């Protein structure tokens, strides 16, 4: 047999091995549960349609929750938490929300500002003296929260899962880290992972009880407000967590997204992304790493928050309604802090991501409807996770999925179309 024939045989065999198992795999049924308030039935119909037309993977699952004026109006879920084990997505299924965790972390920091324990315009080193190393003495809390500190490496030298388990040790490594650019209060670049250990240590330093962010969130938000969300998941809660999968069809669709093409070109032509890749440490090399119970247990307030769509929507719903929970009458944040999230900083190019972006005190301030008619604040996460508040219309929104799409920054068709349907329903009321 010739060399060419051998090569063809190898190629054909590889294709058969890659695609035949999926070809003969039975397509899972569409299973949808939950409820919507009267007048919001079109949102439920769109949620189902996403599974029918392939926008949402039949091999994964998703959940959507919406609060309006402090009351839950949409709470629906569907698909599979683990299709290989035939586990459907259930009412109490939780999932990793990746960078949507940053929004929750930003709320925790804002609570400390509300209590007079932090000032956004004071240097971080005032609260955390060791942070002044390597020319970071004048970096303010605001600049840290708005990704201006230049600490964009995925992980500074020496940072591993083990060091992240020790919040104080993680803080030591971040304090010793050198910025990737001269801090000028204008240049910003996405602190994808380091935002977590930075905010965790800052909170620990100023909290009178010196709690970690996971502990602070549990005691100050999760328990009093009845929110099913964790930063650092207890091992006995792993049975409820959806297994992350790649949304393979969605990955192909992503090639037509101009923002993804822009990001790819930027990654190839600038040094920051290369530096991030070369310094990611022994933490996580793919999103699927967060299928590990050991990594889920570590407090990383930038990437590994785990909870339900219902929980996240409730938090943002309270903020959208003015900061006080209508059910418990407890205050989450002052109106001053909520309004501050809406005061968008100048939209300029992110040095890491390569597209225009505005971070405001840790939140992404952006347009959440494709026609640009609605303003809000919140944070998205890898794979299509979405969470935001719209104070004007008093909406708290969260969409989560374990079928990870490739889209970024408002590009996921699933949540965008659900959002459009939601506001169309609101206009008719």
UniProtKB/TrEMBL annotation:
UniProt entry tagged with the keyword Electron transport: no
InterPro entries membership: Beta-lactam-related, Beta-lactam/transpept-like, Beta-lactamase/esterase
Protein name: Beta-lactamase-related domain-containing protein
Species of origin: Strongylocentrotus purpuratus
Xref: PANTHER family: BETA-LACTAMASE-RELATED (PTHR43319), BETA-LACTAMASE-RELATED DOMAIN-CONTAINING PROTEIN (PTHR43319:SF3)
Residues spanning the signal sequence: 1-18
Record Gene3D superfamilies: DD-peptidase/beta-lactamase superfamily
All copies of domain Beta-lactamase-related, residue ranges: 48-407
UniProt keywords, alphabetically: Signal
């Amino acid at each position: 047999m010739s060399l060419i024939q051998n090569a063809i045989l190898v190629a054909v065999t590889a294709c058969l091995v890659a695609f035949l198992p999926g070809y003969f795999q039975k397509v899972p049924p569409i299973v949808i549960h939950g409820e919507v308030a009267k007048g919001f039935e079109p949102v439920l119909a769109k949620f189902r349609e996403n599974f029918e037309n392939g926008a949402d993977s039949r091999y994964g699952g998703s959940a959507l929750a919406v609060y309006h004026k402090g009351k839950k109006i949409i709470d629906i879920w569907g698909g599979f938490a683990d299709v290989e084990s035939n586990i459907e997505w259930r009412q109490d299924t939780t999932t990793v929300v990746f960078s949507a965790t940053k929004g929750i972390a930003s709320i925790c920091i804002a609570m400390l500002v509300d209590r007079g324990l932090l000032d956004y315009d004071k240097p971080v080193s005032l609260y955390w003296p060791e942070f002044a190393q390597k020319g970071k003495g004048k970096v303010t809390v605001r600049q840290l929260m708005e990704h201006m500190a230049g600490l964009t490496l995925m992980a500074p030298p020496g940072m591993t899962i083990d060091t992240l388990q020790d919040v104080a040790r993680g803080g030591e490594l971040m304090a010793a880290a050198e910025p990737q650019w001269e801090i000028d209060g204008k240049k910003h670049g996405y602190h994808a992972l380091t935002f977590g250990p930075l905010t965790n240590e800052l909170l620990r330093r100023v909290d009178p009880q010196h709690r970690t962010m996971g502990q602070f969130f549990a005691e100050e938000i999760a328990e009093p407000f009845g929110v099913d969300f964790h930063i650092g998941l207890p091992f006995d809660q792993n049975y409820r967590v959806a297994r992350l999968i790649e949304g393979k069809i969605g990955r192909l669709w992503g090639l037509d997204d101009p923002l993804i093409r822009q990001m790819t070109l930027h990654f190839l032509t600038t040094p920051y992304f290369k530096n991030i890749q070369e310094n990611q440490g022994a933490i996580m090399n793919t999103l699927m790493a967060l299928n590990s119970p050991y990594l889920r247990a570590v407090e990383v307030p930038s990437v590994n928050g785990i909870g339900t769509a219902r929980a996240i929507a409730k938090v943002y719903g309270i903020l959208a309604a003015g900061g006080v929970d209508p059910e418990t009458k407890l205050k989450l944040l002052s109106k001053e802090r909520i309004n501050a999230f809406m005061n968008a900083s100048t939209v300029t190019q992110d040095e890491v991501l390569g597209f225009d972006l505005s971070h405001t005190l840790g939140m992404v301030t952006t347009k959440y409807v494709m026609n640009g008619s609605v303003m809000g604040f919140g944070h998205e996460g890898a794979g299509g996770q979405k969470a935001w508040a719209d104070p004007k219309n008093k909406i708290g929104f969260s969409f989560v999925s374990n079928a990870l799409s490739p889209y970024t920054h408002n590009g996921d068709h699933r949540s965008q179309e659900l959002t459009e349907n939601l506001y169309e329903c609101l206009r008719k009321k």
